[in-house]
Please model this.
Amino acid sequence: MASKREHLVGGAQVKGTMIQAHLNWLRQQRHDPTTSLAPHLAPEVAKLTAHVVLATSWVPLTSLVAVDRAIAAVVKGNPDDVFRELGRFSATSNLSGIYAGFVSDEPHRFFEKQARLHDRFQNFGASVYKEIGSREGQMRLTKYTEYSPVFCLSAVGYYQGALETMKAPGPIRVRETLCTCAGDEACVFDLSW
Model:
């Protein structure tokens, strides 16, 4: 893959459950989001960490990416690993909590439903899921007007966490094979379990 680039202009938004989960992960690492993240964030983004973001609220993608980078700086972990773990935690916590009704016993049905409901969780892009084999599939994200490698790494973790939540037999493998951040026309995630 070519080197990764980022394009964030502020119009793309995601549901508040994403940032909620990422801040909860930081709390589990024994860091207070309000005090620990503020030195790493612009004041308007730091405000998001100082109060409860509603699950149904829309949050700018630029803010989510900034918060994720600040979290990686605070925990002093490998940023790529932290971003994947934030996505994984978002899946395991949200799919066993507020969005438990979305979970299916069959991964293919879950990912098909998720692709159809894409616009309920973010206001940009489109999503299509394709069943490849009995225990493998492919998620294709297109028309991303804004993108970041941070968001893509979080997506890898999210798909892994979703499969873990569904108790997929494993071994679980999630790999991004194409990426808009690398100049490809889509972000493509190969999933197997």
Remarks:
- The longest helix spans residues 79-95.
- The domain at 13-192 is CATH 3.90.1520.10 (H-NOX domain).
- The chain has one domain: 13-192.
- Helices lie at 16-28, 33-37, 43-49, 61-75, 79-95, 107-116, 149-165.
